[in-house]
Amino acid sequence: MNYRDEQNKGKISPEKAQKMLKKEGMNVTVEQAEEILYFLRLIANIHIVKFIEKNKTTKKN
Question: What's the rounded mean pLDDT across residues 8-30?
Fold first, then answer.
């Protein structure tokens, strides 16, 4: 997986995420920060899809 090629469209870079995490006491590599960003994006997308599906069924009733 290459975060920069697939996901980086004006979003938080792995380097920025690494710095943000370090400020909070988590020392991670740039590669780990990439994986964390990928996972968070995946979870966010799943949540958005579920929210949309829930609202579609609510409007039908």
Answer: 91
